[in-house]
Design goal:
Elements (H helix, E strand, L loop, with lengths): L2 H17 L14 H4 L1 H12 L18 E6 L2 E7 L9 E5 L13
Antiparallel strand pairs: 1-2, 2-3
């Protein structure tokens, strides 16, 4: 999707929020049940969507102090989230995912 198309979608979504409404249609939308049960489709969605975008994996309340951490597995990867020791806002959580043995680390500049 082009940058202009992303901007158009963002504008539509912003309008929905500002107008307190959502997309409506006169038709019933039907989605085949296989879209929810097919393991191959699930794997493609994980790779093409969820492994390419930032994910919300912890709430601020879970990690209130510098040095707090949360260890978990997400998308089949072990994840470690830790809070940095910055004394003034903004404080950021750092997330590290262990690379699976078959994956290669991104090259410099990637």
């Amino acid at each position: 999707m082009s940058l202009a198309a992303h901007g158009e979608v963002a504008q539509v979504l912003l309008d929905y929020v500002e107008q307190n409404r959502t997309f409506r249609t006169e038709q019933i939308t039907r989605v085949p049940s296989v879209h929810y049960t097919d393991p191959e489709r699930w794997s493609r969605e994980m790779a093409l969507i969820f492994k390419r975008v930032p994910l919300m994996l912890a709430l601020t309340a879970e990690l209130p102090n510098a040095g707090d951490y949360k260890a978990m597995t997400a998308l089949g990867l072990p994840i470690l989230i830790s809070v940095t020791a910055i004394k003034r806002p903004p404080r950021f959580a750092m997330c590290v995912a262990a690379m699976p043995p078959t994956a290669t680390a991104p090259s410099a500049g990637s």
